[in-house]
Amino acid sequence: MTSGDMVQPGAQAARFYGSARSEPANLGDILERVLDKGLVVAGDIRVNLLDIELLTIKLRLVIASLDTAREVGINWWESDPWLSAEAADRAAARDSAGRELEEENQRLQERIRELESGRADHGGG
Question: How do the domains of the chain map onto residue ranges?
Fold first, then answer.
């Protein structure tokens, strides 16, 4: 067997990812291309018993660079308070605004009760 007949590791991946070189792609080249183009792995697992669905697990795995993910509309990490300081600040501001609204709501409800009780006193006499 000559060296030309041997299949080199990574040669098929290099052809698949469009390498113009005839040499095999190394792991770095493959990873760079996967992150640049993105890779999606999807699958469903269903457990049925007598045509009754007991369990469904939907698996979705996306491997891509942040830039590639943003291009296709995936940016959930930007709104996750655990992963983004800006998102944490926005969540804190929402919590603060929510507390202020609750307090204002309570004050208005108390004022309405006062007005209604005063009206009942004046209207009844």
Answer: 80-125
